[in-house]
Design goal:
This protein is of the alpha+beta class. The chain has eleven helices and 14 strands. The longest helix is centred in the middle third of the chain and has 14 residues, at 237-250.
Length: 367
């Protein structure tokens, strides 16, 4: 069947995502032949949805762990693996944008075309950046700091958005990594060489090869249709995350991919990276209020005062914003006697005010 932009629009409307905010994971090949290629798919999404988000991951500046910074349970074989950094290109947060390098082989042609589309914003996470296009694109991508890889998806939950899988299964569904974070699995630590010569920590996702095993547990949430040859599945993100959280609490081993060699899913099930003095354990917390990973970061204001760079520093108190649902926003500060965990009738607005006044980030466009 010959597909075109109009056919794809019709299929998307049948899924009921008109005017909604949607995180898209897509395979162009799954459609068969599409007149207009990836551009037709992107245009159809933008005409149907209000805001469109796509992962746009890269490995700019990726380097080896410093000898003095090697946390345990981090899905890295420190003794047996060393990355070739011969042609490493340092990461520059001031110039990184939608025109910067994308791992097309991993991400696909649709995200590559999405980045080229006028009006697309790209977050400045050095490893797991997200792109967004729509009225709230700047809000979705702003302030995506290195230690919070799931931030754009947390904002999508606040907006009661959806996850759309076009020709891919749950192994490509990044929202499940957000569910892992909610149950207490810390994102993994990797290292990036910055343009100023410093090597800094970044947080990123783990292994997702076993995520398709979760499909029966979220089948009741899925709306599925065929768009040409493409199997399209849509999930409401908040309910998807909550359902997966329940499964991980009772069946934490379900995310094991089965490899006999070291894999990140093994360490993730135990709770993820551990610093010296932290005990190993399998985490089964299901609280949507608790921030799962307690990094220690110092915040250094950029010269242009428009963004902040977060540099690993164990001697500074940790500040963590947890925004995993519209009613589960918690503000935490360790080592600061003047800051208390707060409950608020409108937590999202409180979080936005805090981000704007304390960190120079963007408030939500509606308030």
């Amino acid at each position: 069947m010959n597909m075109n932009e109009e056919c794809i629009q019709t299929g998307l409307c049948e899924l009921g995502i008109q005017g909604r905010d949607v995180a898209v994971h897509a395979s162009l090949r799954s459609f068969g032949h599409v007149t207009g290629g990836a551009e037709a798919v992107v245009h159809a999404l933008l005409k149907v949805c209000r805001n469109v988000l796509m992962p746009t991951f890269c490995e700019i500046g990726r380097t080896n762990p410093p000898q003095e910074d090697r946390p345990r349970q981090n899905g890295w074989d420190y003794a047996g693996y060393r990355k070739d950094t011969t042609n490493i290109v340092p990461f520059d947060p001031d110039t990184f944008d939608a025109t910067s390098k994308l791992n097309v082989n991993e991400m696909g042609r649709i995200p590559a075309e999405f980045l080229r589309t006028p009006g697309t914003f790209r977050s400045k996470h050095p490893s797991v950046s997200w792109a967004a296009n729509g009225p709230d694109a700047a809000w979705y991508t702003a302030g995506h700091i290195a230690d919070d890889p799931n931030l754009p998806l947390k904002r999508l939950m606040e907006k009661q958005g959806a996850v759309l899988l076009l020709g891919v299964d749950l192994a490509g569904c990044t929202a499940i990594h957000l569910a892992e974070e909610v149950v207490g699995r810390s994102p993994f630590i990797r290292w990036v060489l910055y343009v100023d010569g410093s090597v800094r920590r970044v947080r990123e996702y783990g292994c997702s090869d076993a995520f398709p095993k979760l499909a029966p547990h979220v089948a009741s949430l899925a709306k599925q249709i065929a768009i040409g040859q493409c199997h399209a599945v849509c999930y409401p993100i908040t309910q998807l995350v909550k359902n997966v959280v329940k499964v991980l609490a009772t069946q934490p081993q379900i995310t094991l991919c089965g490899r006999q060699t070291l894999c990140r899913c093994q360490d993730s099930m135990k709770g993820g990276p551990k610093e010296d003095g932290e005990a190993n354990q399998t985490v089964v917390s299901t609280s949507l209020r608790a921030g799962p990973h307690r990094h220690r970061w110092a915040t250094q204001r950029e010269e242009d005062n428009e963004s902040s760079t977060h540099i690993c520093n164990r001697n500074h108190p940790h500040r963590y914003i947890s925004n995993v649902s519209e009613r589960a926003n918690t503000l935490r500060t360790e080592g600061n006697p003047h800051a208390k965990q707060q409950q608020h009738a409108c937590p999202s607005r409180r979080i936005r005010k805090y981000l704007c006044t304390r960190h120079g980030r963007y408030p939500h466009p509606s308030g």
